Amino acid sequence: MTTYRSFKDVLARSLQNPEIRAEWDRTALARDVSIWLLRYRKDHNLTQTELADLLDWRQPAVARLERGEHEPSISTLHHLIDRLGSKAKISIEPDRVVLQFVGRTRPLRRRTRLVSRLRPGGRGLTPQPV
Asked: Do residues 125 and 115 make contact, with C-beta atoms less than 8 angstroms apart?
């Protein structure tokens, strides 16, 4: 008879191995951002493309962050927090970086990309949707 173990149990047992634990801690920041971004998208019923539009990014950039395989830079974290109206605390410890999202995200407002164009006749600048 096959017995099944929960992911939580398998993970707990795996993390007893020092090498696996070190890698788990090393990738915590990327994993935390991935989980937060996926939850944000789900909570706001957004596709990756729609979220990318809010961030002024292309969809592949959102997909890369959601995979959790690459550690985001401080400037990337700042951009996410600024655009999505959240707050975060970062704690840098000897063996890991801990990111904690705090507070609520502001209500989602769709951003319209604007490009300034000269009005006919040279009477000033008018924002035009892209």
From this structure: no
Tens of pLDDT, residue by residue over 36-84, are 999 999 999 999 999 999 999 999 999 999 999 888 999 999 999 999 9
* Structural domain range at position 86: 7-129
Task: Give the predicted TM-score (pTM) of the model.
Answer: 0.69
Task: With respect to residue 104, please indicate whether it lies within any of the assigned structural domains.
Answer: yes
Cα–Cα distance list, 103 to 10, 57, 80, 107, 111 (Å): 32, 24, 14, 12, 21
CATH of the domain at 75: 1.10.260.40
* Domain tally, the chain: 1
